[in-house]
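agent: user wants the full assembly modeled, not chains individually. Plan: 1) parse entity lines 2) check alphabet per entity 3) run joint structure prediction 4) return tokens. Steps 1-2 passed, two entities, 230 residues total. Proceeding.
--- entities ---
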Amino acid sequence: DIQMTQSPSSVSASVGDRVTITCQASQGISSWLAWYQQKPGKAPKLLIYAASSLQSGVPSRFSGSGSGTDFTLTISSLQPEDFATYYCQQANSFPGFTFGPGTKVDIK
Amino acid sequence: EVQLVESGGGLVQPGGSLRLSCAASGFTVSSNYMSWVRQAPGKGLEWVSVIYGGGSTYYADSVKGRFTISRDNSKNTLFLQMNSLRAEDTAVYYCARIDYDFWSGPNWFDPWGQGTLVTVSS
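--- prediction returned ---
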């Protein structure tokens, strides 16, 4: 199974800050990576797919990069509605898709 | 509008059974890869099962032999039959469609239902 790790596990930031979250796969997954946002009590929402493609309707302040084993999600200017937990997911090995442990972004 | 609505969660004793349903609208369940993903309280996301094509299925090792995924094409609904439930199966269960690309195959989960809580406790 492909294992996913994320860092940091949590980050405290202020509105307007630039926030970067990293995700690492235990083996190369090309660009088969997605990012999800989850708010408390809600279902996850797809933000980024294929490592860097923005899902329709997602604000352009979100961006993704990387390939192989190392990936990054960046929020260029944090907004109040962005405080949430973010998960990466590898889609290289069907059916055993795996998620990272999550990164919680909260208010400083 | 593409939508998924889960139901069937609740409190069940260890060793008991429960059947979850996921009603889809705006697309056809039988033409898509459909999956269940769960999230234990305060924990991360865990893929549970998938069904696709003519009825091919896969399961996570943690539920293999105890859970069965199925679908009713006439009702456009996905199911998860959960037997021999354990305390560690306590979680919010989400159904989700897996996006599919002809060249790369199944990949991302979108959309997701709102989830249904399963609590296994005596």
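agent: reporting back. The two ends of chain A are 36 Å apart (CA to CA). Chain A is about 0% helix and 50% strand.
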